[in-house]
TrEMBL record:
Belongs to the glycosyl hydrolase 28 family. SUPFAM superfamilies: Pectin lyase-like. One of its GO terms (biological process) is carbohydrate metabolic process. PANTHER family: PECTIN LYASE-RELATED, PLASMIN AND FIBRONECTIN-BINDING PROTEIN A. Keywords: Glycosidase, Hydrolase, Signal. Pfam families: Glyco_hydro_28, Pect-lyase_RHGA_epim. Residues 1-26 form the signal peptide. This is Putative polygalacturonase. One of its GO terms (molecular function) is polygalacturonase activity. Its EC number is 3.2.1.15. Residues 44-90 form the Rhamnogalacturonase A/B/Epimerase-like pectate lyase domain. Gene3D superfamilies: Single-stranded right-handed beta-helix, Pectin lyase-like (2.160.20.10).
């Protein structure tokens, strides 16, 4: 069959892309290579502050003291805190501006399993409460607030959250506060996270929130496939974000873009936009490769994802929302995706539910518009697409272009659509009736122009 050879050539093309991280290709793509390797004029080792890398000694104070000391270099080009080979047990600590936290290849930062080492902090204003439980939440292992120019990097050193204690507490419903992330940076500008491995996060692994100018490159994120809500990377109410060349294998969404929750997200009104994702390989048992929502009340727009390979997963691409969310998801372009052994290739959910409290406005309907799925190829797909909009709030200009899915399941129909409107062109199996308009000119399917982010200077 003709599409089979097209499938194979695109598979090869994308695998080359994914396996050669330094590939700098399509002019339309925004991620530029970082020069974050630029050395800070001053560097100290964590051992100068009494840290012991035996995996047993608690080094929270050493991290805090080292970072406090490095304050004085912030206006002199900043400083580097070096973590040499060893196992460095620590509780939560906070970064400062103009700081590079740099891990040696054989350095492992290990999160304490004593919950008291993870302080309690306020909920995010755009969520109004902890994501899992009302009230406050635990602070992430590596935290940042109000920072500029911060780099977390290494020669593939590891940051291990030792999440299993948290997963157990979550499963047996004995947590008092929402679980912490491995890395959370709030209100920060100019963030680079690169060349590291993140394992066993208690909750989401990397959470930039209210940030801009964020580059996440060449990181590996691992957690057991059955660990609860261990999302990989969650850009949240953040702009100008580039995520590239990552391998992610976790229990929930690999990369998921968010922007606040129901009435809190609506009133905080901080969107996520200009998000670029490229060269991602990964698997997730309960989540999606690339997702948006379900918290999207501040709006999500200008998302450009390409060169994504998702295998052995529940969902390929997913958009989640609900009445009560308000906000919007628009101008989303996802292209050049390979899926293998994925149960649902594309899912749009308009009734996700999950509200922070009873004060949400059920009439706050999300506006979902101009979502393009282009050049999506799948093998061993269970179900091509389940696309549910909201009654009285059709999701519009949904465009499927070059979507070829070899669905092995016996489900019929392969596309199940409601309250959506849009287009399809070269889609197999034949798409649902609601999306069968043929795009008559290129403008109906959203395809972003070159809006290169200026991330090269980070
Ligand atoms: C955050 O930064 C702003 C402006 O630089 C400053 O006014 C504010 O006090 C800072 N807040 C905290 C908690 O550091
Ligand atoms: C990715 O990280 C590894 C390990 O740190 C390093 O050897 C490699 O050069 C990095 N690749 C890129 C493109 O930065
Ligand atoms: C980094 O280390 C992880 C875990 O040891 C490994 O799976 C991955 O392949 C390494 N990445 C690079 C780029 O060397
Ligand atoms: C819940 O899990 C924690 C961590 O494994 C364990 O210490 C605790 O005994 C469990 N509680 C219940 C009620 O099962
Ligand atoms: C939750 O709070 C109760 C009461 O303060 C305390 O006994 C329990 O240890 C706490 N549980 C956790 C997981 O922190
Ligand atoms: C990652 O490591 C490689 C190899 O050491 C280096 O060339 C590159 O600049 C680093 N990337 C980032 C984004 O730090
Ligand atoms: C679809 O998959 C089946 C089972 O793997 C295979 O036999 C068939 O050739 C594939 N069809 C196409 C068009 O690739
Ligand atoms: C389509 O999906 C809806 C859920 O959104 C389900 O209730 C319905 O049974 C499905 N229809 C078919 C024909 O599979
Ligand atoms: C919404 O979509 C449905 C099909 O699901 C269609 O019948 C209806 O006319 C659309 N409503 C509006 C207001 O366009
Ligand atoms: C394409 O179709 C839309 C309606 O689906 C119409 O409004 C528009 O004028 C058409 N454009 C061209 C170039 O025919
Ligand atoms: C998004 O990128 C475009 C093009 O580079 C730029 O004009 C726009 O200001 C950016 N938006 C935000 C919120 O930074």
């Amino acid at each position: 069959m003709r599409w089979r050879s097209a499938f194979i050539s695109v598979v090869l093309l994308t695998l080359v892309t994914v396996e050669k991280p330094q590939w700098v290709g399509a002019q339309s793509f925004h991620c530029k290579h970082s020069k974050s390797g630029a050395l800070r004029p001053h560097s100290v080792s964590i051992t100068e502050f009494g840290a012991v890398g035996d995996g047993v000694t608690l080094n929270t104070k050493a991290f805090q003291n080292a970072i406090f000391y490095l304050h004085s270099f912030a206006d002199k080009g900043g400083a580097q805190l070096f973590v040499p080979a060893g196992k460095w047990l620590t509780g939560s600590f906070s970064l400062i501006s103009h700081l590079t936290l740099s891990l040696d290849n054989d350095a492992i930062i290990i999160g304490s399993t004593d919950l008291d080492d993870w302080p309690i902090i306020d909920p995010l204003p755009s969520y109004g409460r902890g994501r899992e439980l009302p009230g406050n939440r635990h602070q992430s292992l590596i935290h940042g607030y109000n920072l500029t120019d911060v780099v977390i990097t290494g020669g593939n050193g590891t940051i291990d959250g030792q999440g299993s204690i948290w997963w157990d507490l979550f499963k047996n419903n004995t947590l008092n506060y929402t679980r912490p992330h491995l890395v959370e940076l709030m209100y920060s500008i100019g963030v680079v996270i690169s060349n590291l491995t993140f394992t066993n996060s208690p909750f989401w692994a990397i959470h930039p929130v209210y940030c801009s100018q964020v580059l996440i490159q060449n990181v590996t994120i691992l957690a057991p496939l059955d660990s609860p809500n261990t999302d990989g990377i969650d850009p949240d109410s953040s702009t100008n974000v580039c995520i590239k060349d990552c391998y992610i294998s976790t229990g929930d969404d690999l990369i998921v873009i968010k922007s606040g929750w129901d009435e809190y997200g609506i009133s905080f009104a901080r969107p996520s936009s200009n998000i670029s994702i490229k060269g991602i390989l990964g698997q997730t048992k309960f989540g999606a490769g690339i997702a948006i929502g379900s918290e999207m009340s501040g709006g999500v727009s200008e998302v450009h994802a390409e060169g994504i390979h998702i295998f052995n997963s529940l969902y390929g691409i997913r958009i989640k929302t609900s009445p009560g969310r308000g906000g919007y998801v628009r101008n989303i372009y996802i292209s050049n995706v390979i899926m293998t052994d994925v149960k649902y290739a594309i899912r749009i959910t308009g009734q996700f539910g999950e509200h922070p409290d009873d004060n949400y406005d059920p009439n706050a309907l999300p506006y979902i518009n101009r979502i393009t799925f282009k050049d999506i190829y799948g093998e061993h797909i269970g179900f091509a697409g389940l696309l549910e909009g909201i009654k009285g709030d059709n999701f519009s200009d949904i465009c499927l272009s070059g979507v070829l899915l070899n669905a092995t399941g016996s489900e019929d129909p392969q596309w199940n659509c409601s309250y959506v409107e849009g287009y399809s062109y070269q889609v197999y199996p034949v798409s649902c009736q609601l999306l069968q308009q043929v795009p008559n000119d290129s403008s109906v399917c959203y395809a972003p122009a070159d809006n290169c982010m200026k991330l090269a200077s980070l």
